[in-house]
Structures are given as structure tokens and as C-alpha cells.
Write a structure and sequence with these properties.
By secondary structure, the protein is an alpha+beta fold. It has helices spanning about 25-30, 55-65, 120-125, and strands spanning about 5-10, 15-20, 35-40, 45, 70-85, 90-100.
Length: about 140
């Protein structure tokens, strides 16, 4: 399982891969790149690498961050562009997956500082800006 996600896949507006770039550089320049988000009871977000199947990459990241595996269905994709902290820019073609499981989430040693725990009620509430930047653009 490859979890060193130091590069992002650059894409055009139709999600065609056109190159790759260091993740920090892409966020500094605000270059459009591929990403995925997983909605369970919580979210897990990351960036697929150049030769990765997006769904497989999402399932690997979910297992890495939460220690669980579940079947994921792609729900939709969207593009967003917004400044974030530390003078970085999120500009992603985000593939959103939904998973269903009765497994209780347990944080594991593989969990990272970027792990987010958002319940869906909060994401779709009027105060969603407190939980996720891209919800206000979708």
C-alpha cells in the first residue's frame, strides 16, 4: 500500500491527466489536480497518484487512515478553487465516493494529521463553512 502522497496528478477541466507535480507546489500555485473524498460517517480525503485507479486509491487511503475497508461507490465529481491557510490554494477535480459499513471506526497508527471527522449532518448544515471549504462552492 503506497501512502506517500507527495505528488498530485494534474488534470484538465475534463479530468484528463496531463502531468504531475509536487503536492505543495500545486497548492502554492493553485494548479488544477485530481483528488478524492470519501463519505462514510466521516470523511477521508487525499490525492491519487499518476498510475492509480481513483477508486482503488480511495479505498487504500480509507484503510490507511481508519483501519477499515468497505465497498465504495462513486457518487459525483466537481471542481473547486479556493485559498486555504498558509497561502496555499486548493484547486481540485474531486471525485466523491460514498461507502456503507457497520464497522465501528477506530483510529490507527496510520492515521494522519489531515484526517477529518465530519458527520454528514454538519456537512449539509447551514454552518458547513465551519467544516469544509468546498461545500460552499458545490
Amino acid at each position: 500500500m503506497r501512502m506517500d502522497r507527495n505528488k498530485v496528478v494534474l488534470v484538465d477541466l475534463n479530468d484528463n491527466a496531463i502531468g504531475e507535480m509536487d503536492k505543495i507546489e500545486a497548492h502554492q500555485k493553485g494548479v488544477l489536480h485530481r483528488a478524492f473524498s470519501i463519505f462514510l460517517f466521516n470523511t477521508c480525503c487525499s490525492h491519487p497518484q499518476w498510475d492509480d485507479d481513483i477508486k482503488e486509491s480511495a479505498q487504500e487511503r480509507l484503510q490507511y487512515e481508519t483501519g477499515m475497508y468497505c465497498y465504495l461507490n462513486k457518487s459525483f465529481s466537481f471542481i473547486y478553487h479556493t485559498p486555504v491557510e498558509n497561502n496555499l490554494i486548493e484547486h481540485e477535480y474531486d471525485h466523491v465516493f460514498v461507502g456503507y459499513t457497520d464497522i465501528r471506526l477506530v483510529t490507527g497508527a496510520g492515521a494522519t494529521a489531515t484526517r477529518h471527522f465530519y458527520v454528514l449532518v454538519q456537512i449539509y448544515s447551514p454552518k458547513s463553512i465551519l467544516y469544509t471549504v468546498w461545500k460552499m462552492e458545490y
